[in-house]
Amino acid sequence: MIMAPGKAHYDYDELISCGHGQLFGPGNAQLPLPPMLMFNRITEVTTDGGQFGKGSIKAEFDVDPDLWFFKCHFEGDPVMPGCLGLDALWQLTGFYLGWLGEPGRGRALGVGEVKFTGQVTPKVKLVEYGVEFKRVMRSRLKLGIAEGWMKADGEVIYTASSLRVGLFSDEEPVVE
Question: NCBIfam families annotated for this entry (predicted)?
Answer without folding.
Answer: fabA, PRK05174.1
